[in-house]
Structures are given as structure tokens and as C-alpha cells.
Amino acid sequence: xxxxxxxxxxxxxxxxxxxxxxxxxxxxxxxxxxxxxxxxxxxxxxxxxxxxxxxxxxxxxxxxxxxxxxxxxxxxxxxxxxxxxxxxxxxxxxxxxxxxxxxxxxxxxxxxxxxxxxxxxxxxxxxxxxxxxxxxxxxxxxxxxxxxxxxxxxxxxxxxxxxxxxxxxxxxxxxxxxxxxxxxxxxxxxxxxxxxxxxxxxxxxxxxxxxxxxxxxxxxxxxxxxxxxxxxxxxxxxxxxxxxxxxxxxxxxxxxxxxxxxxxxxxxxxxxxxxxxxxxxxxxxxxxxxxxxxxxxxxxxxxxxxxxxxxxxxxxxxxxxxxxxxxxxxxxxxxxxxxxxxxxxxxxxxxxxxxxxxxxxxxxxxxxxxxxxxxxxxxxxxxxxxxxxxxxxxxxxxxxxxxxxxxxxxxxxxxxxxxxxxxxxxxxxxxxxxxxxxxxxxxxxxxxxxxxxxxxxxxxxxxxxxxxxxxxxxxxxxxxxxxxxxxxxxxxxxxxxxxxxxxxxxxxxxxxxxxxxxxxxxxxxxxxxxxxxxxxxxxxxxxxxxxxxxxxxxxxxxxxxxxxxxxxxxxxxxxxxxxxxxxxxxxxxxxxxxxxxxxxxxxxxxxxxxxxxxxxxxxxxxxxxxxxxxxxxxxxxxxxxxxxxxxxxxxxxxxxxxxxxxxxxxxxxxxxxxxxxxxxxxxxxxxxxxxxxxxxxxxxxxxxxxxxxxxxxxxxxxxxxxxxxxxxxxxxxxxxxxxxxxxxxxxxxxxxxxxxxxxxxxxxxxxxxxxxxxxxxxxxxxxxxxxxxxxxxxxxxxxxxxxxxxxxxxxxxxxxxxxxxxxxxxxxxxxxxxxxxxxxxxxxxxxxxxxxxxxxxxxxxxxxxxxxxxxxxxxxxxxxxxxxxxxxxxxxxxxxxxxxxxxxxxxxxxxxxxxxxxxxxxxxxxxxxxxxxxxxxxxxxxxxxxxxxxxxxxxxxxxxxxxxxxxx
Length: 968
What we know:
- The strands form 6 sheets. The chain has an 8-stranded mixed sheet with strand order 7-6-8-9-10-14-15-16, covered by helices on one side. Strands 17, 21, 24, 25, 26, 27, 28 and 29 form an 8-stranded mixed sheet that branches.
- The N and C termini lie far apart (155 Å).
- Helices cover 43% and strands 17% of the residues.
């Protein structure tokens, strides 16, 4: 307790003065260096008298070497023995070294005890006197906050990690298990290994992966449980840092679990090699000249002499502190000397090339690669050394003489391929169909149980399965398991997404992590992803992909625009102007036909009826009927033109009608039968997509590979900013909105969209593919299954298995049906021809309306004709009465004449009356008709000319007067 208290006091003072040092400005350096000292005392705290003698001899020898010691400068040695008690060591440093004004101290390691070099470092560091260690390898001395002026010609134990990385590169081991103690050296070697391996990833293709890190407390009693934990891991390469006693326990328990037999590889540090039960086949490291104090003393003195020489030429050197009881001011020369020593390089030192890093630790140290063979014999099988030709460290290993665990001459594979894999997938038609089990039902023969992934319990067991999966990827998984011989448990994505690289807050620390399928694979909670997983650079940085099992790209899905079939669709073949001109032409031609036939000398209006038959002349109504009949290709039974000129015009009109009807028929077929709606978009380069005009909505699935593609493309940044707000969580929702018309364009993988277009012919993909890539099987980094899966997929491509999956799940014969549907004419329906039926209905209704009008008109005409008949009847009756009176009056005159003459000849008179009656019957009063005068005149002329008929008496009525106006 007293010793620890004093160390704590030293440390407190040291930190106090370090803070004070950071606030003191450096002195002016432009001074005359001729006042620098010519004698320098070099102190030494060594482990033995032999080392003291070597120390003195080396300083004496260096004084005669003008390369290191300038003329007029002399070095003196002051050496003391190391005391196992660190307190006495610290007191001796003050009493025998600092009091003699030493400029630097060379310290060794005691034969017993561990803290004495630290006591020297604390004491000297308090005054900033440089200390060069020649045997201290603890990582704690690298901490410059504590050991402010400590340097060493031996590397710390953590630097063995650099050699481990080179050995892993040489043996091509990619995945390891790291075992280390929980002390400072154990944590330091792990950090050094991770830093060194990451720095090499840019230069080499091999990327190391630490599958598991086992940290243990020193003083082990058993390591059995930890070894059981890592025995089921894939890696079979163990990197171990442990001291002698802990290594003995680990080797004992590993041997009991057969973990030191064939198939395993152990690479350990030199401390672990000291265990007396080191198994055969283990590889370890041994620092060259690690215990050669003579070599390290010489190298340290020559490095110090070089630093003093350089400093004497460029810096002012002040006297060293000489009293531990008086702190005084900070010794700036000590700080400068430390920096000069750190920059020195000794190419041909006794221990090889001597150089230091920023912490003052030795770099470029040489190691021997040691192999434990039969009878615990140590054989050097290689070395890690500085190559002066290429001026860098190199590893040289003779693989032929290495004996591996199990006394094998062949290098172990370094990993154990598990035969049971945890496989993840995601619902994505047609690659994965998911069916929920109802009740106690079981999956069908072509289905695989696939519960949803749950972090709280093991879902990779068939007992918890509530869903069944089938599809393209499920058939591929089955075939893969048969091809490369593994079993599997299947589960669905925990969040239904492929995975997105997002920023998450964990305990107040924001860190980017993967979600979804990728997150489970990166977190090593799954071994494989069998799904339509797009291969892209963002994902390939964190997981490994097989060769693509399907090549695809990105395309656009949209709904076909519906054709606008209106009630007047049958009028579409002609424009409105042409229809108006046709209508006008019909009536103009009809009018011209009427005029030509009317005024032609050979028309019916001019020709006499010589054949005795009555044929109606071509009036205007007949001409219109003729023009329409020719245009509509109907039979013309009557009312045809008679004149030659009119018939020539009729022939021309018939030709015109033939051309019009043929053109209408052809265009009608084009518009109503062969018309196919085109896509709205031309592809990704469509201006409406790039500039988001016309209120065009497009979207993709957020966090997907398509989303990552748009983020990478600078030229699509405007488009991406617009569509980002419309993105969906799943492809199913987006496709449903496209079908419903809520989304105009959905951008997604071509395989899925082509499948949807094949299933529903109302959907169509627009434009050519872009962003071409492929679907691959996702695996963990360094997975041992990578090569086997890739080779199997290549065999599937060559054997036609992938093509059969395409035909079975993606095409399904529906594509050919849609293509045939596209190539065949449309079937016209009522919607297309509704206007024609409406036109016929309008004609029927119009005809019914006209017949009503005709009936009303006819009824009116009949009433008028009846009044005319009544008027004619009354007139006839009146004429009869008048005629009767005239007759009686005429007959009364002869009677009176006879009476007056006394003659009574009744017979003669009766004969006269009868004669007149016969005359009246022949040419007497006739019924009056229009044109009656002409007919009567013709009869008179005909009769008078031959003398057959007597002329009608003047007193007989020759005309029938219209007295209808007299009828009320």
C-alpha cells in the first residue's frame, strides 16, 4: 500500500508539471551555440555488473568515434544497479544520477520485479530527462501522458499484431477468433491488430474479419466455457495473447475439447510459448535479440550520441537538473533531446535497424516465426525482418517445414463450414410468395416454412412457423441446398425491407447502421439472404455477393391510357370539316342533277309520252334521294336522271361516293379495330420525369437499391427530390396504386414489373432498361460458402435451370398472351359503336315523328276534301234544279204555241224532249275537274271535226263554278 501511494504521488506531480510545460513558451533559439557544454554525463540503471561494464566500454568507445561525437565533446558514464524495490530505485536515480546532472538515462529490466523501470521513468520524467529502455515491453510505457520522456529499443508486445497481419496474409486466412487478456497489453494488441488490418484493406484484396473476441481476466482457473462458445464458430484460426500461466490453462482446456487437433490453427505471442504444455503445430513469435542487453546497450548509446550531436549543432544546450529537492524551472533541453532521439535512425545497429515511432516505441524490430514440433522442439520456420533493398519490413516463411496441429503437413483451411444455415428472405412476387397459415395447417410440398424474424427468440425453428413461402427464390434455395449440401432454416425479413443504411441513436451516440435483411447479415444473425437482392456498391461494402442468378435493370411501370370511345366514335375517321363538305356535296350534286335534267332538251320535261306509259319526271326530291342512294350504296329504283349531262354527273358522283366510302371504311378499321393505346412515358429520359411537369407523380421503394441508384446519379437529383416524398414502403402498395390510377409511374426492378405487366395486360413498362445490375445471393463477409454458391449458380445458368425458373415463375405464358393481344385487332363493343345504334334509334324516332305529322296533315286534308265534296254536291244539286227549271220553261213555250195554233201533238213534243235528253246524256253537263275545260274543248274539236257529236247547247252548263266558299 505504501509503495502504491508513493507511485500515485509521483504520478500526480508528473501530471502537474506536464500541464505547466504546455503553458511555457519556448525560448529564443537564435543564439551562439559555442557556449554549449563539452562534457555530457550519461546515466545507466542496469540489471547486472556485466551490463555496467558493457555500458562503460560502449561510452568509452563512442568517444573515439568522430562520426557520433564531435571534436572537443566527451561523454562520461554514471551507472548503477537496478534495485527490485522501485522506491529505492527512484531514490538511487536522484542520489547517483540526477545529482550528477545526467543528460539521459539508459534503463534495463531487473532480474526480478516489474515496476523498477517505471520508477526510473517517473523520476526522470519529472525533470524531463530522456530515458531509453532496453528491455521494457509493456504497452503502458507507450502512454506519453504518464511516461513523458520514455523511449525504448525494444518494441512493445502489442507490435506483434503487425506480424500477425502479415502471417494471415501469407496463409490466406480471412476470418479469425481473437483471444486476449483484459490487461493493458491484451487490449493494446487487439487495437493494434484492428488498426493495422484496416489500414491494409486499401492495398490488398484480403479483408480480415474478427468473428469473435474473447477477453478474459488474468489468473485463469478454467477456460472451458469460453472455448465451447467459440467451438461452434466458423473460424478455426485463433490469435491468442496470454501470459505463461494463462496460456497453460487455455492449452489444457483446448486439448480436452480436441481444439488443438487437425483443422485448427493457433498463432500466439512469445509469452504464450513459455507454457510447458504448448501443443504441437502452434505458431508463435520470438523477438530477435530480445534478451541481449549488450546489443541494446550499444544501440541505445549510439542513438543517444547521434541525437546529442545533431542537437549540439542546432540547439542551445543548457545544464541538466542536479537536485531532486528543488524543482526549479522546466528543463527545455530535455524536451528537445527527447524529440531528437525519436527522430534518429540507426541502419546497422546491433539489433537491426533502430527507429522510433511518435510514442518513442521501437519499430522495424525483427521477429522469428517459431513452430512447436515434436517433443516441444522449437523450429524457426520464418522471420519478419527489415529488407534494406526495398527498405521495408518483409515476411519470409518456409511452409514446407511447418508442422500443423494434428501433425499435418498441409495448412488447415482455417474455417469450419457449417452444414446448417440461417437463411433470410422477403416477400417479393414472383420470387417469393408468402401464404399465412390458418389454424393448425401445414405447408404444401412446394412451400417452405418461413416465420417472421424476431429478435426475442429463435425463429429459425419450424415450430414457430406461421407462414409458408414459395416462388422463384425458394426453388433456387432448394436446388442450392442439394447442390452444395447444406441444410437451412428460413425466416422473413423483420421489417419487410431489404435494408437501408440509416443513422441511429444509441445511448446518445449517432451511428449509421443497416436495417432489414442487410442489417441481420451484417450483424451475423443470419448466414445467407436468398431473395431478389440487387447487387450494388453500397451493399457490397458490407456483405458479400455471389454471381448474379438473374440479370435485370430498372424500368418504369404505368397503366395503359384508356381509349376515348365516345358516342360519335364512328365519326372519327373523318374530320368535322370533311363531314360538312360531304353533307354539302350531297345536296349540291342533287340540285345540279335536278337542274340539268330539268333544262336539258332530252329530259322528261321535254319528251312526249309516245309509248303510252306514264313516267314521272326527276323532281328535286328525287334528285336528293338519288344522291344519297348513290353515296350510301343503296339501290335506286326510281327517280334517275334521263338527260346525258345529268347521267355523266351521276357517274362522277358514284366514283366520288366509292372513294369516300372506301376511305371511311379503312379509317374506321384503323380507329376502332387496330388502334392500340401507347404509353404515356418514353423512358427515364422523358422530359416530364426530369422536370416533373404536368403534375406527373412517380415513386419507388424507399431504402431500396433503386433508391440508392437515384441518390448516386447527379443528373437525376431534381427528379429524386420530387419523387422522394412519394416513395412507398413496399412494392405491393405502389403497384396497387398504379392499377388504381393513384400513381402514374412506379420505378422498380424490371423483373418484377415485367411480371406484373404479364399478369395484367392493362399495365405496361415504359422505355428501355437503365441502371442494369443483377440479383445475387447475399452472404457474410468472408463466408466460406461464397465460392460454392457462385459455382453452383454458374452451373445452373449453363444447365438451363435458371431459364426454367424464368418460364415457371416470371413469364408463366402470360407474356405471349399479352403480345398476341397486342398484335390482334380489338373486338368492337357497344361502347365503340353506340353512336351508330343511337343514329338508327334517332332515325326510327324521327320516322315515327314524321308519320304522326303526316297523319295529322292527312286528316286535315281529308276534312278539307270532305268540305269540297259537300260543296260540289250542293252545287250539283243546285245545277240540277236550275236545269230542270230551264227544261220546264223551255217545254212550256211550244205548248202555248200549239194551243194558240189549235194543234195538239203530244207525241211530237215528247219526241223533242227525248231528243234533248239524249243530247244531254251524250254531251250534257259533266262533273267539273281541274283541267276540265281543256278536255271538253278537245272533245268538241274532235267531235266537230268529224260531225259525229253535236255541239253542246249553249244553255247547258259548260262550267262548274267553285261554290265551296258558299258552304258554311
